[in-house]
Amino acid sequence: MDQHASDKHVTSKQRIVSPKVLIIGAMASYSVWLLGFLFDTSLFSLVTKQAQTNHVFIISVVSHVLGYAYFGYRVTHLESAKRYVKFGLVGIIAILGLMVHIPSAFALGLFAIGAFFGSGILVSFAYLIKAAIPKAERAVAMGVVLIFTNLGLFVLDELMLLNRARVATVFVMLMLIISLVLSLFLQHLSDIEIDAPSYQNPMFLRKDLWLLGLMIAIITINGGLMYKVIVPSYTSLGSIVSHLWLWPYMLGIILYLILCKFASRGSILIGFTALLGFSFVVYLVGSISMPSFLMVFLFLMVPLGAFDSYWWGTLTELFDETQRPGSVFAFGMVANVMGVLIGMLISEILASLPNQGTLVVAIALTSVFVVLGVFPLLNHLLYDKDLLEIDVVSLFDFASHENKIKLVVQQLSERELQITKGLLEGKTYKMIAADLHLSVNTIKFHIRTIYEKFEVKSRFELKQLFEKGSQK
Question: Binning pLDDT at 50, 70 and 90, where does residue 9 land?
Fold first, then answer.
């Protein structure tokens, strides 16, 4: 009787708060501090009354890279990740509190320590994501994290524009406290609700991760050029330049997630890449005017939002390919940080040269063509895992289609039934082809037909369709 009551209590708590929601909230609120304090060093400079110089940013980058390398190696399983998130956030909150009250020379040291240990928290979140969020739902979950993070950054930027450094610091502290509270609640639920997924072959991970890292770095270089060169070009237009950058970025995230319902990620990203290149051309030929600014920022920030949503989602989906998801996250974050650093260094070099705008556009367009060259290779490696073909699914359960399953199964040919069985068993296209003595292209042709008949766009949606039907 007591056990039954306990089970009912757990079920009630499951309905009230989901681990997915807790992780999204914890990551988004934590990322406001990560991006708004450690990477945008203007708040640190105001709080500590130091001049805002590049060496502070470089210290942040170096500390982050060292932190990702160390914690990617040290954090190895879910239990250690939960502990580190808890104690790491407490330590970061303490460091931020001390930073406000000590001499600036010591504050810089605390800043470096915070960046180092802050990397470990993000690495640890990888284990919680893998344990609590199904693979097919991670893309949309990371998109939601990015949207809420940028809403927090918008509030922080507004406080900074009002020169409210103390209030901005309190806001950042509040974000860290929210992240800590949500993480504690998540740890309380994890033993009941979180099951570690089965591990897949980690050896297939290497090439696609390196190519993904290269693409992350190249795209982020464009982001660095945007912040350091393109945005300052329009400062004469007034404060609107500081207010508008966020919204097209979030629009890009939303558009990407919506478009994934109707087309493959590969096709979508090629379109966004072309749009990114177009934005730099408009910047080169346009004047410093409001219409030119709006056009450049729309065509620049929308693709950057889409790309960030893509690589965050794809990184988290790769977690199932290894027993060390923290290392995968660390690798992607290092690529992101190095891209920002390279973009900043390039912009510093260009600042002293004539025809700065032309050179920026030349570098940016070169990177666009590199991405267009890298992406087909990455697409080839990820396609067999369905990572580029996953439909964006809801974070919540959807209705059963038991009757439709029975009807469609009756209409499948014997060959289609064999391939469907292989898909549901988790076999790769190559494995199915070998079993049936067919070519991979023939298997892909049959799979497209199977997906059309079941009205799904991915293996994962197909699996969920059958799982929902079997629960009835």
Answer: very low
Between 3.40.50.300, 3.30.230.20, 3.30.300.30, 1.20.1250.20, what CATH number should domain 206-374 receive?
A: 1.20.1250.20
Specify burial of residue 2 (Cβ count, 10 A radius: 0-12, 13-18, 19+). exposed
| Helices (H) then strands (E): counts for the chain | 21, 0
* pLDDT tens for each residue of 339-396: 888 887 887 777 777 776 677 778 777 877 777 777 777 766 665 555 544 444 444 3
Superfamily grouping for domain 1-194: MFS general substrate transporter like domains (1.20.1250.20)
What is the sign, positive or negative, of the torsion defined by CA atoms of 420, 426, 430, 432? negative
Architecture in CATH of 402-470? Orthogonal Bundle (1.10)
Report the alpha-carbon distance of residue 204 to residue 206 in Å, rounded: 6
Q: Which of 315, 415, 340 is nearest to 27 (CA)?
A: 315
Q: How far apart are CA 423 and CA 95, in angstroms?
A: 50
CATH 1.20.1250.20 residue ranges of the chain are: 1-194, 206-374
Under a CB-based contact definition with an 8 Å cutoff, are residues 412 and 453 in contact? yes
CA 420 to CA 435: how far, in whole Å?
A: 13
Tell me the C-alpha to C-alpha distance, in Å, between residue 436 and each of 93, 398, 439, 447: 58, 33, 9, 14
Neighbouring CB atoms inside 10 A of 320's CB total: 20
Place of tokens 């199904």: 134
User: Using one digit for the tens of pLDDT, what is the confidence trace for 294-305?
Assistant: 888 888 889 989
Residues with Cβ within 8 Å of 81's Cβ and at least 6 positions away in sequence, in order, are 75, 123, 124, 125, 126, 127, 128, 326
